[in-house]
Amino acid sequence: MDFDLSARSEQWRERLQAFFDKEVLQRHRAWVEHVANHRETPPFMGDLQQKAREAGLWNLGLPELADNEPGTRLSNLEYAPLAEIMGRLFWAP
Q: From CA 28, how far away is CA 92, in angstroms rounded?
């Protein structure tokens, strides 16, 4: 079986990796500290989710979305490398 990424999948992987590096990783320590002290979602999560939506990185890997629903409609094969990136932090997906 060919496990090489398609050009589309590679483009999505690069976009997500850049977002993850710039926006998510830098917040991990703050996330851990906040949850340890407050046992609730950190206040920056709403902002981070909005940035992900604006970057087109929301509802990844939902191939059966209706035309009026936001998302990428990536196949499981296209979504797999993205799940690998997001899975580095359990709160990132």
A: 9
The angle that helices 76-86 and 7-19 make with each other, rounded to 10 degrees, is 20
User: H-type helices in the chain, by residue range?
Assistant: 7-19, 28-38, 45-54, 76-86
Q: What CATH number should be reported for the domain holding residue 41?
A: 1.10.540.10
The count of structural domains within the chain is: 1
Report whether 70 contacts 58 (CB < 8 A).
yes
Q: Dump pLDDT digits (tens) for 6-42.
A: 898 899 999 999 999 999 999 999 999 999 999 889 9
User: How does residue 1 score in pLDDT terms, banded at 50, 70 and 90?
Assistant: low
- The residue behind tokens 């500290």 is 33
Range of the domain at 32: 7-86
